[in-house]
């Protein structure tokens, strides 16, 4: 019985993932061509989508700081990932989203308090926490997030 339920949950979630974040994937590609300025999302970009783009830029900036041995500065209010309005509000309200979100926020705290010795590890696990949520809930931007990874 439990197995059956789990299977249904997995099926429903796979459907949601396939159906969801395809727009985000298109946006990601479009974003890199400066000529195309319009969003492909007919309803406009959600507050969460805009925040995610800022988070990408922030992570890119923090990566440089880590690589240069500088102190890592956090400028965005990352807590907003838990309240920003999403293209699919049900997804952002799910227990799974909140769990990955909490892990991400913990990663931000760790990086904020990192020493020059621990900063690289902290940065890597932060990017991994972006990946974890995206692989589970929103695979479209995964390719883009990979660019944030440090050379091994
Ligand atoms: C807790 C889950 C979660 C975490 C953690 C997370 N994301 Fe997202 N991300 C999402 C969801 C859900 C969307 C879809 C937002 C929407 O359309 O409303 C998204 C969208 C995006 C997009 C596409 C935005 C657009 O242009 O439409 C990018 C890029 C992105 N995230 C990058 C990142 C990066 C970089 C990190 C880590 C620094 C990160 N995400 C962490 C869930 C997450």
What's the arrangement of secondary structure elements?
Blueprint: H1 2-19, H2 22-31, H3 47-67, H4 89-93, H5 95-112, H6 119-137, H7 142-146
Helix pairs in contact: 3-6, 5-6
Bound molecules: heme C (HEC).
Any overview of this molecule?
The structure is a single chain. The chain is an all-alpha fold and 152 residues long. The protein has one domain (2-146). It has seven helices and no strands. The protein has helices at 2-19, 22-31, 47-67, 89-93, 95-112, 119-137, 142-146. The longest helix is centred in the middle third of the chain and has 21 residues, at 47-67. The protein is globular, with a radius of gyration of 16 Å. Heme C (HEC) is lined by residues 21, 24, 27-28, 45-46, 48-49, 52-53, 55-56, 59, 81, 86-87, 91-92, 97, 100-101, 104, 129-130, 133-134, 137-138, 141, 144-145, 148. The site of heme C (HEC) has 32 residues, from helix 2, helix 3, helix 4, helix 5 and helix 6.
């Amino acid at each position: 019985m439990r197995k059956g339920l789990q299977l249904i949950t997995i099926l429903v979630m796979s459907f949601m993932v396939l159906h969801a974040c395809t727009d985000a994937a298109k946006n990601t590609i479009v974003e890199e061509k400066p000529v195309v300025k319009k969003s492909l999302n007919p309803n406009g970009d959600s507050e969460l989508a805009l925040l995610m783009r800022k988070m990408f830029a922030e992570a890119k900036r923090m990566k440089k700081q880590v690589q240069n041995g500088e102190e890592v500065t956090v400028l965005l209010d990352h807590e907003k990932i838990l309240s920003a309005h999403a293209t699919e509000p049900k997804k952002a309200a799910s227990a799974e989203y909140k769990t990955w979100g909490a892990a991400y926020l913990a990663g931000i705290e760790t990086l904020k308090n990192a020493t020059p010795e621990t900063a690289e590890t902290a940065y890597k696990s932060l990017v991994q926490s972006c990946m974890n949520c995206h692989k589970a809930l929103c695979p479209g931007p995964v390719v883009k997030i990979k660019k944030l990874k440090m050379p091994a």
